[in-house]
Write a structure and sequence with these properties.
There is one protein chain. The chain is mainly β and about 450 residues long. It folds into three domains: about 170 residues, Immunoglobulin-like; about 120 residues, Immunoglobulin-like; about 140 residues, Galactose-binding domain-like (Jelly Rolls), CATH 2.60.120. Helices cover about 5% and strands about 45% of the residues. The chain has three helices and 32 strands. The strands form five sheets. Strands 24, 25, 26, 27, 28, 29, 30, 31 and 32 form a nine-stranded antiparallel β-sheet that branches. Strands 2, 4, 6, 7, 9, 11 and 12 form a seven-stranded mixed β-sheet that branches. The longest helix is centred in the first third of the chain and has 10 residues.
């Protein structure tokens, strides 16, 4: 029998037989001795169809100054079904007698125990069949009323209506939240799986990397991650949950020396479940985010090869100030004697084939120069802006700040870096940037 105590006490103000849901049953200084249900009212019992019957415990409490041997009788009171339907606006039906058993119709009290238990056994498979094969619905209830011989009964704690919900037996991912990995302190990724019920079998869970999820993830989150290459981790891809074990982890050991600077994700999901009982599994994807910062590249050899606009008459605002290692200088769109229409483009010749991992940008801290959006591209050779050789590596938001923005760009390489401020990216025709750095590797 599966012992499973997943009662959610939903206390209702029903009629006299369904009142008094409080759990405070300390009457030691008020009565010689009384008995009542621990959680009267209505309780939802959640079960799993795993091929075995489910046993639900029903608890009673004995309180008061004195105690005498007594008998608690457990019976069915069909009138409670109408009472709860009236109170809740539901249409519950009485669970047919052939689908459950009251395991102890009489519970004997005695000794010093103040908490006593009876139980009811239900067949989840038959109940699911009665529900039309559906999971997650509550159509049937068992209405219980207790009576006592010996110590008196607390009348407002004498009734309990049990509703039953059958859930599909499934292996779940314990935590589906995205997990950012600190490569300094983490040596292995842990993919956690669990069962929400007592495991009575040997179960093998296999996981797989869902490479197709990378594009979907980036589209949903406005990111530009790449898939972590297989060479960067080692895994058996499976774990065995032995009988009695309800949780486990599938490990992915990181081969840190193989991870190049860049921005990666590893999307993992359950592939198959092998067990002696029919069992489904969670189809969600857990995403591990791995960022390895590159070294800051030397900008001294760099030059500006193309610029849509720059200020050369008023405050010095030439594009070369983006890469002059001086945060007090800045590039500024033309403003003296007129302005140039958006979009704006600046192309930097980095002189070497370069693979950027992150781009850092410091905007001018002036609300009048506020930027809203920037885009980056890589190119293998210089071409006009309208050319087709540019590889898009990211679009990012920005605002006025005294701190650098760090942008995790898409994996790519090239000699030329193109910065674009699109039509919606500037404050009218005014834009200014103090500094631009590239982290990554170059040849």
């Amino acid at each position: 029998m599966e012992k499973h105590n997943m009662i959610t006490a939903l206390c209702l103000v029903l009629f006299i037989g369904l009142t008094g849901c409080g759990n405070n049953f300390d009457v030691s200084d008020k009565y010689d001795g009384v008995i009542g249900l621990s959680t009267p009212g209505y309780s939802l019992v959640e079960m799993f169809d795993v091929g075995v019957k489910h046993t639900e415990n029903i608890y009673f409490q004995r309180g008061g100054l004195n105690s005498t041997p007594s008998i608690i009788h457990i019976g069915i009171d069909e009138t409670l079904v109408d009472s709860i339907n009236t109170a809740k606006g539901t249409a519950y039906k009485l669970l047919p007698a052939g689908l459950y058993t009251i395991d102890q119709t009489a519970v004997q009290t005695g000794g010093e125990d103040r908490l006593l238990a009876g139980s009811i056994t239900v067949d989840p498979a038959k109940l699911r069949e009665l529900n039309g094969g559906n999971y997650g619905i509550v159509n049937y209830v068992i209405p219980l009323r207790i009576a006592t011989e010996g110590m008196p009964l607390v009348s407002e704690r004498s009734t309990l209506v049990l509703g039953f919900c059958i859930n599909e037996a499934a292996v779940l991912i314990s935590n589906t939240d995205d997990e950012e990995i600190d490569l300094e302190s983490v040596d292995a990724l842990k993919f956690p799986v669990e069962l929400p019920f007592e495991n009575q079998w040997d179960i093998t869970v296999k996981a797989e990397v869902d490479a197709s999820y990378v594009d979907s993830y980036n589209e949903m989150n406005g990111t530009f991650y790449s898939l972590l290459p297989e060479i960067c981790y080692t895994t058996t891809g499976q774990v065995k949950m032995a009988r009695g074990t309800s949780s486990a982890e599938i490990g992915f050991t990181l081969n840190k020396e193989e991870i190049l600077p860049g921005n990666y994700i590893l999307p993992v999901k359950i592939q198959t479940v092998e067990a002696d009982v029919t069992m489904s599994f969670n189809t969600d994807v857990k995403v591990f985010i791995i960022t390895k910062k590159g070294k800051e590249l030397d900008r001294n050899p760099w030059t500006i090869t193309y610029c849509t606009t720059q200020e050369t008459v008023g405050d010095p605002g030439q594009a070369e100030h983006l890469i002059d290692n001086d945060v007090s200088s800045f590039w500024h769109s033309r403003w003296q004697g007129g302005s140039d229409p958006l979009p704006y483009d600046i192309i930097i010749d980095m002189k070497k084939q370069t693979a950027p991992s992150q781009i850092k940008m410091l905007v001018r801290n002036n609300s009048g120069n506020q930027l809203r959006l920037v885009r980056f591209y890589m190119g293998d050779s210089f071409s006009e802006i309208t050319g087709t050789d540019w590889k898009f590596i990211g679009e990012f938001s920005c605002n006025v700040s005294t701190n650098y923005f760090t942008y995790a760009v898409k994996q790519s390489s090239g000699r030329y870096l193109r910065l674009e401020i699109p039509n919606a990216g500037g404050n009218g025709t005014v834009a200014a940037i103090c500094d631009l750095k590239v982290l990554g590797s170059s040849q």
